[in-house]
């Protein structure tokens, strides 16, 4: 089979990409060979005749909403077999369920008045049968793939409209029964919080219980694999509930507006859980002042073992949350405590940390996720023999149980990619047509999320109420509290009986275990800056600050946090999340970090630092090669992406903005103000500067061309500052 680009076809209200597909349908012996009694597959090429068939594949590239909905009924005829799935997964970015349903049923689904082009020339009976099958096919796919679109309590207008249509046009059909059952299911379900597992509000506690700082003895009583399994259980329950369209960049980026406080609740819930795990790690290590150095080191070792168990269970979400917490400023700076952590465990920690290295757009974690997405068990390789033996032993125990495992991803990776796509690609093309090529690119990411959600059905985990109640009871430290406790713990450790000689040798040993020799040089001991905007600990459950680079969707819209950094960069430790959530909230809520790690679970910006968004072929039209997208920190094709933060807020709270070689200061300033939810008309009141270094800035003249005037040899980080 070969494919050939057939160009474009333009119709009223739509543009199509055309691909010619050439397929060999027959190979037979020619006349002379048949006379000799030969068969085609037994003869050389010169004695055979090949017959080919060329078919045309039409894939809509852009169109009006009416054309896109009509294409649901004609896509199979055009051989665009993935169109229905792509449309249903992404249409919420440009239309509402009611608008699509009304067009589908009232305009194209009216069996009496429809003049649907494909069946217009058939007799009325055939027309009705063909249209009935097409409508039923689309509705069946909609209910199968996106039934949550019809959850509109308390009226359920769309579902009732659909039920009325089926009663009139397809009475007593299976579809009618299915819609009736779905309506009853929605009506009977009690309203429950999506983030039920991870909320730490007092309303989730049993009467008489209060939030408390972890008791080290109680925490130590839980076996490492039990903790990992329970964290995985909670992560699986939340990840399976994620509604894929909630992850779309155009939707997720709007979550910080006042009217959208309940937007994308399923994604907020995963972020809340991520931050809850990170904060739990920090509170168990720092919450008890009376701990001795060795006791605190044992708790760190226990969390590293738990992280390793999460790796065996293929739970990359809690794994990253734990690593982010250990890389947070308040934990990382405990240099004396880290000296007491055994060498083998430090090596294990280093290997686990390398999974989330930001090198080459997080290539390691991306490849690992794709490799293990649908595998039955984790593929564990360790450079350290002792760790490898333990890993293989634990993995063998899992295999002996005969229970397959799913994969829980770090959702920030996908949020980052979707936000970058939303930033880089336009919503509309010439003529005001909806850019559906953008939706095809987004679906490549959405399809991966759906695949991983399906894999999570393989988990067989039983909730341990004792641990879950303990986890919910934990009081999370604020960033200021954790930093203060960290200083107290380190000050007490300085009076320890370690001799200078032994201390020096331990520092040397530890530093060589990490990526650089400066690893354990503590950061300047200044209390972390708090963002003027934010809340006290526990105020917001969707905050999300995780330390990972990708969850930080900061990138485009909310770039919340600085990417998680390796131990060699103490000043850039990921912050797990502020009380207000770095990971999940846009600038305004995202900057008050909870405990210290300034990285957010989603860091779109970071993810794109070194390359364009990865592209898969699913949903793409054969023969069409995606163009290179603009990226952060690199000028290519006359465009690039910059990060703009507001003066006075933490630098991790930034917005990603696409600029071209035609953009001047007023244009970029206005877009930056809009992204930060400020009045765009106040352009004259602000100035745009590029951060060159800690003590140098590049100030742009009023009408300067940003693309050509910026320094392309440093990070594309800008500050929007109110003029004096």
From TrEMBL:
> What processes does the entry annotate via GO biological process terms?
Ras protein signal transduction
* SUPFAM superfamilies documented for this protein: Ras GEF, Ubiquitin-like
Keyword Translocase tagged: no
What the entry lists under Gene3D superfamilies is as follows: Phosphatidylinositol 3-kinase Catalytic Subunit, Chain A, domain 1, Ras guanine-nucleotide exchange factors catalytic domain, Son of sevenless (SoS) protein Chain: S domain 1
What keywords tag this UniProt record? Guanine-nucleotide releasing factor
Q: Name one GO molecular function term.
A: guanyl-nucleotide exchange factor activity
Record has Transmembrane as a keyword = no
Q: What does the entry list under GO cellular component?
A: plasma membrane
Q: Which residues form the N-terminal Ras-GEF domain?
A: 56-187
Q: Which InterPro entries match?
A: RA_dom, Ras-like_GEF, Ras-like_Gua-exchang_fac_N, Ras_G-nucl-exch_fac_CS, Ras_GEF_dom_sf, RASGEF_cat_dom, RASGEF_cat_dom_sf, Ubiquitin-like_domsf
Which PROSITE patterns does the UniProt entry name for this protein?
RA, RASGEF, RASGEF_CAT, RASGEF_NTER
Bias (Low complexity): 531-540, 573-601
In this chain, composition skew of type Polar residues spans 541-551, 607-618
Q: Residues annotated as region Disordered?
A: 518-632
Name all Ras-GEF domain ranges.
Answer: 223-492
What region holds the Ras-associating domain? 638-724
Q: What is this protein called?
A: RGL1 protein
